[in-house]
Design goal:
With about 280 residues, this protein is α/β, with parallel strands linked by helices. Helices cover about 25% and strands about 20% of the residues. It has one domain: Metallo-dependent phosphatases (Purple Acid Phosphatase, chain A, domain 2), CATH 3.60.21. The strands form two sheets. It has a six-stranded mixed β-sheet, with helices on one face. A six-stranded mixed β-sheet has the order 6-7-8-9-11-10, with helices on one face. The radius of gyration is 18 Å and the shape is globular. The chain starts with 11 loop residues before the first helix and ends with a strand. It binds fe (ii) ion. Fe (ii) ion (FE2) binds next to loops.
Length: about 280
């Protein structure tokens, strides 16, 4: 008996057409040149120290590896994924945050993806939130795969980790994909009334609500850093739908880091290398 057919997400078929024209076709037209050049780019390991008086003193100096937008699929296959995992493992972080778009289009290949991501280990855990691309096909397959791989998916939820002595631990929250500022705010409220120490959100627009709540650190992806940026200023890039496009932003004691991510859905990056961010959090 064949397995029952699952229903795809509403945007899947439109995304498949876009994938054909913007991901597969440019690669075919250039006989694989664009893809080969794209995946040959070395990862930029971006080390940042971020300070906030709101960061819990018990976790002063915590190192977080932030990886996003893997887009496992046509452009980023198993070999590049293995390189990504090796690069993240080499960082030896206390906590690993994967902020969405784990797959590019289809969830069918997620077993291979999670076989690799299962190799990631961190003292306080490996946390995952979903991005818009993870919703194109079958998000529940992604969430289940993450959980089975020993990762911690957070879907408008939070978790305390690393309790020791009199300290109750670091409160890590993660919200599911939302395209809007009010949608992100709504999802953050669903995480509970306590203010998280760390928020994972695919969409950087979540920072608006996070800053209002006084969240010390929000980690996001989604923009890919614009993929094409001016050499002199990485914030002059191809993202026109948001002002939170790349790098570190701060408002009072709240901080946001938007990573370029490691993958893409178009095989071109200019002055915008694939990135693994390493954030060291310090109390002021
Ligand atoms: Fe993405």
């Amino acid at each position: 008996m064949s397995a029952p057919k699952r229903s795809r997400g509403a945007g899947y078929h439109k995304a498949r057409v876009r994938n054909m024209f913007l991901t597969v076709l440019p690669d075919r037209i250039t006989a694989g040149f664009l893809k080969a050049r794209h995946v040959a780019q070395p990862f930029h390991v971006a080390e940042h120290t971020i300070r906030s008086a709101a960061w819990p003193r018990a976790f002063d100096g915590l190192r977080i590896a932030h990886v996003s937008d893997i887009h496992y699929g046509h452009l980023l296959g198993i070999e590049r994924l293995e390189q990504t995992v090796d690069a993240v493992r080499a960082v030896r972080a206390d906590l690993i945050a994967i902020t969405g778009d784990l797959v590019d289009l289809s969830a069918d290949e997620s077993p291979a993806l999670f076989a690799q991501l299962a190799l990631l280990r961190a003292r306080l855990g490996v946390f995952v939130v979903l991005g818009n691309h993870d919703h194109l096909d079958h998000p529940r397959t992604i969430v289940r795969g993450a959980r089975d791989a020993g990762l911690i998916p957070l879907m408008d939820d939070s978790m305390r980790v690393g309790a020791h002595g009199s300290h109750e631990g670091l409160l890590v929250a993660g919200i599911d994909w939302s395209p809007t500022i009010p949608g992100c705010a709504h999802r953050l409220r669903r995480c509970g009334s306590a203010v998280p120490d760390l928020l994972l959100a695919h969409n950087p627009k979540a920072f608006v609500a996070a800053a209002e709540r006084g969240v010390p650190l929000t980690l996001s992806g989604h923009t890919h850093g614009g993929q094409l940026a001016r050499r002199a200023n990485r914030r002059h890039n191809l993202v026109f739908t948001s002002r939170l496009t790349a790098g570190h932003y701060e408002k009072d004691e709240s901080n946001l880091y938007v990573t370029n991510g490691v993958g893409a859905w178009f095989p071109l990056r200019v002055n915008c290398p694939p990135e693994i961010a390493v954030i060291e959090m310090r109390c002021r």
